[in-house]
Amino acid sequence: MMRNLVAGNWKSNKSINEARNWMDEMGEAMDKLPKNVRIMVAVPAPYLASLAHEKHPRILIASQQVSANGHGAFTGEFTADMLVSCGVDYALVGHSERRSDFGETDEAVSNKLKQCTTAGLGVVLCCGEHLNERDSERQEEVIKSQLESALQDVTSDDMKNIIVAYEPIWAIGTGRTATADQAAEMHTFIRRWISEKFDLYTAENTSVLYGGSCKPSNAKELFASKDVDGGLIGGASLNSGDFQSLICSFT
Q1: Which candidate, 49, 45, 42, places its Cα nearest to that of 22?
Q2: 26 vs 8, 57, 146, 199, 242, CA distance in Å?
Q3: Is 219 left (phi over 0), alpha (psi -120 to 50) or beta?
Q4: Catalytic (active-site) positions
Q5: In this predicted model, what pLDDT tens digit does every residue of 50-106 receive, in sequence order?
Q6: What's the rounded Cα separation, in Å, for the pair 190 and 24?
Q7: What are the Cα distances from residue 90, in Å, to 49, 63, 66, 178?
C-alpha cells in the first residue's frame, strides 16, 4: 500500500462554485503531480455527494464529520453508511477542533470509528496534545491514551482503511512551531505503538500524517522523515496551487 498521502481539510470554507473550481484546477494539474502520492480532500458536508461524483479519479473524498450512532432519531446527524452511499471514501474522526470546540470525547471517537469500520468507510483518526501537555512532557502519554481508546476493538484488517493524523495542537495558531525533529519523534512513537498493538506489517503499511501548520515552505523538511507520510492540511489546502506544491514536496 502507498503510504504517501496529502489530505486537505477545507473546514467551513468555500461555496459550491469555488469548490468545483478547485476540483477543476486540480484535475487539470493531475498529470504534473507525482504518482507516488495519494490525494484526499475533506469538503463541507453539503458538497460531498456532488463532488464525489464530479472529482478526478485520483482524488479521495472525505467527510469532516460522521455520526457516532446508527440510523434513528438523531436530527442533524449523518451516518457512515449514508456517506458510503454518496461515494465518500473517508471520514475525519477525532479532529482537535471537534474535541476542543464541540466536546467530542474519546468514547465518541471510538464509537464513530466503529460505525465507519462496520460501514466500510475509511477513517482519518486524529490525535494530538495541548500546550500544557507538551510543556509537562506528557505528549506520548496523551497520544497513547487517545490511540488505545479509539483503536481498542480494531483488528489489523480494519487498519487497512485507517490513517492516523498527528496534530500538535500547541503548534496550531499559538505562535509556537513544531520542528521537523519533534514531528518525526512523535510519528516514530505512533508507528512503534501500532506495531506493538498489531504487528510490524500493519505499522509499516499505515499512513501517519502530520497535521500541525504544514505549508509549502516547511513541507519538504517535514515529509523527509521516514515516519512522516504526508500531511493533513488546513489553510494551505484552500488554494489549489499551494496544495499542489505540497503534493510535489515528495519529489
Answers
A1: 42
A2: 12, 11, 34, 36, 11
A3: alpha
A4: 95, 167
A5: 999 999 999 999 999 999 999 999 999 999 999 999 999 999 999 999 999 999 999
A6: 36
A7: 13, 6, 10, 27
